[in-house]
Amino acid sequence: MPYPSTPDKAKAESQQGKARRRLAGAVAALLLVGGGYGLASIRGTDLPPEAGAPPKQAGRALVAPQGSEPVAAVAKAVLPSVVQIETEGGLGTGVVYNANGFILTAAHVVEGSSEVTVRLADGRRVRGEVEGADATTDVAVVSIGRQDIPPASLAIGIPVKVGQLAVAIGSPFGLEGTVTAGVVSAVDRTITTNEGNAASMIQTDAPINPGNSGGALVDHKGRVIGINDAIRSDSGVNAGVGFAIPIDTAASVADDLLRGKTPAVGFLGVSGAEPTIGRPGAFVTDVQSGTPAARAGLRPGDLITGFDGEPLESMAELAARVRPTEPGTDVTLEVVRKGRTLTIHLRVGSQ
Hints:
Elements: H1 16-22, E1 40-42, H2 70-78, E2 82-87, E3 90-96, E4 102-106, E5 115-119, E6 125-134, E7 139-143, E8 153-154, E9 165-170, E10 178-192, E11 198-204, E12 216-218, E13 223-231, E14 242-246, H3 247-258, E15 266-267, E16 270-273, E17 282-287, H4 292-296, E18 303-307, E19 310-311, H5 315-322, E20 330-337, E21 340-347, E22 349-350
C-alpha cells in the first residue's frame, strides 16, 4: 500500500519495486496511479449494476459487544467474508460485500489486471473479474459470480470514533486470514500521495503490512468501517501508523464504477499553500476564473479556515474535504480576509 501518510511526504523505499512485485502492500510512499489506470478503469459487463450495488445503510451488528473476547468474536464473524486476491504482479486482500459475490478491494491491488484469482476463506480458488477501479480514491470492485459467500456487514453512515476498537483482517505477506487489532487513532486524517492527490482516511494502530491492502478494518460489532490501504513507515513494514479508506467512500465509489460512471471529484478552483506564520488554514494564492471559487468571490490572499463547519489546518486538508464531496453540493467556507472573518457559500463543481 504505497502511501505517504503525512502531507510532507515520506521518501520512497529503495526496495519498493521488489515489494510491489511480490505483494500489493504498504511502503512509505503510496503510488495510487500505475500502468493501466488513469482516473478510472471501468470494464464493460453484462451484469446489471444493481447486482453489485453496495448497501445504502448500515448493516446489522454481527457481534454482541459485551463479550469477553471481542476480537475473537469479530474474527469469527468477518473472516468468512474476507478473501485473498492474487494477480500476476502480487497479492492483496478483498472484502465480499454483497450476496452476489462482489468484492471491495484497493485499486493498486488489481493494478493492470482484468482478471484475478480469488482465494476464499475455505481455501477454494475461483476466477474473479475486475469490474472497475478508481485510482484517485484507490477503490476497485471484483466479482466472482458466486452466491455462497456470506457478505460482510458495512458500517455505512456510522460515525467512527477515535479510540474505538479496530480489527484488521487480511493477508499480510501472503498469510491469509490474519487478524490484528488496535484502535482508531484518528479520523479524517489527511494524507497526500506522490501524485499530489489528497485523501481523508481513518488512521489506526492495528498492525497492517504488505498484503493487507484491500482488507477489512472492522468495529467491535463486526461491521466494516474501512478498507485497509496504506501505512506510514520508513522500513516498509508496520510501525503502528496505518490508514484505511472510509467505508462510505469505498461504497460510493463502487456504486459509481458499477454504473459505468467515473467517480466524480469535487472541485473549487483554488490553489495555495499553508501559511508560514499565524493561524492555520488553506492560504489561497490563486483563483481560477470561471470556477466555483471565483463565482463565490474567493480571492488570492484569503485564508480558508473552515469547511462546512469543520476547521481546516492546511491546503491538503481542504483538498481532502472537497474531492469526495458530490459535485453540486452547497457548502460554506469560513474565510479570513484582511483580518475579517467571512462566511462564503458556494456550490462544489466537478473536476
